[in-house]
UniProtKB/TrEMBL annotation:
Compositionally biased residues, Low complexity: 1-22, 186-201
Record protein name field: Uncharacterized protein
Biased composition (Basic residues): 153-169
Skewed-composition ranges (Polar residues): 66-84
Domain of life of the native organism: Eukaryota
Chain positions covered by the region annotation Disordered: 1-84, 153-203
Length: 329
């Protein structure tokens, strides 16, 4: 007797007939429905996909309106690196470092222009930032100026009150005109302010401000000039300025390790004197620099002196000649 074929021995061709054909019809219906759904998704995705034709057009010279409204951030290379720290201004030893680091910090923030002008029409927030940086770095000096200004105003008010009392007293006692004028000479506010302004005020004398220091002024340059003027006065009173003048006038190439070191001594001393308002000027500085070359470079010195006598050598040309010769040493 023949045994019926087992389920495992049924050939694959039978799956296309009978009940298997119905299954295949159902699967084909599912595939077709899935295909329709995929087509619908693709159509929706294509309708929602952003149009990049404007970007392509911008490469050929056309830009879209959306691209023109975008404000790009500043280039990182403009403010690359860390923020330069400002050395606090406390005394003459920190003055040069304070000035150099302050300028570097202001340049980093794009605020250095406030030291060259009042910044009329500039943004108030930027002006406040520049003033804040200057004040914080020189707070000890500017606070002293602020307190001195308050005392100065108090003395002025006291002198005015005293003068008024004397006027009222002289009027009540029927004092003559000449006696009244004589009493006013010793108590007039201008005479008392002249004494306290030149001897007691820290901003009088050398490097004095055109106007008294006022903390409420918004101009950053006013606060910078106040600090510099105070340090210039201190330098003059303590002999620091005189020391720098002597250092410049006695500079000698033979006492320096190289010509480059001698040139740096000249330029650095002039820069420090210029900050203190005591720069001697280019004409004088040229002769000082030539004098220092006489011992170490006698022949070159004679040649440079001849050029200077003929009016063919100024400070910039001398510094360029020194730099070129220093590179060959």
């Amino acid at each position: 007797m023949e045994q019926p074929p087992s389920a495992t021995s049924i050939p694959s061709s039978t799956s296309s007939g009978g009940t298997a054909s119905s299954d295949s019809d159902e699967s084909s219906d599912q595939i077709s429905s899935d295909s329709k759904e995929n087509l619908k998704r693709q159509s929706r995705a294509s309708s929602e996909e952003p149009d990049y034709s404007s970007d392509r057009d911008s490469s050929s010279g056309r830009s879209s309106s959306a691209a023109t409204n975008v404000q790009l951030p500043p280039s990182p290379s403009a403010n690359s690196g860390s923020v330069p720290l400002v050395t606090p201004l406390t005394n003459l030893d920190s003055f040069d470092s304070w000035d150099a680091t302050l300028m570097a910090n202001l340049r980093y923030h794009g605020l250095a222009g406030f030291l060259a002008s009042d910044g009329d029409g500039a943004d108030d927030e930027r002006r406040k930032l520049a003033k804040g940086i200057i004040w914080c770095s020189a707070e000890e000096i500017l606070s002293a100026l602020k307190q001195a200004n308050k005392k100065k105003k108090k003395k002025k008010l006291g002198a005015l009150a005293s003068s008024r009392k004397r006027k009222r007293a002289s009027a009540g006692e029927n004092v003559t005109e000449s006696q009244t004028e004589g009493g006013r000479e010793s108590t007039t506010p201008s005479s008392s302010m002249t004494t306290t302004g030149t001897a007691g005020s820290p901003i009088g004398g050398v490097g004095a401000l055109e106007t008294p220091y006022n903390y409420k002024i918004k101009t950053p340059r006013h606060h910078y000039n106040a600090a510099v003027a105070y340090m210039a006065r201190r330098a003059a009173l303590t002999g620091h300025t005189a020391m720098l003048v002597q250092q410049l006038c006695t500079a000698d190439r033979s006492a320096c390790d190289s010509l480059a070191a001698y040139q740096h001594l000249l330029t650095d001393t002039r820069r420090r004197l210029s900050r203190l308002g005591a720069d001697p000027g280019d004409d004088f500085a040229v002769w000082v620099a030539l004098s220092g070359l006489k011992t170490a470079h006698s022949r070159w010195h004679a040649k440079l002196v001849a050029q200077r006598a003929a009016g063919q050598l100024d400070w910039e040309e001398l510094m360029a000649a020194m730099a070129g010769r220093a590179c060959k040493e």
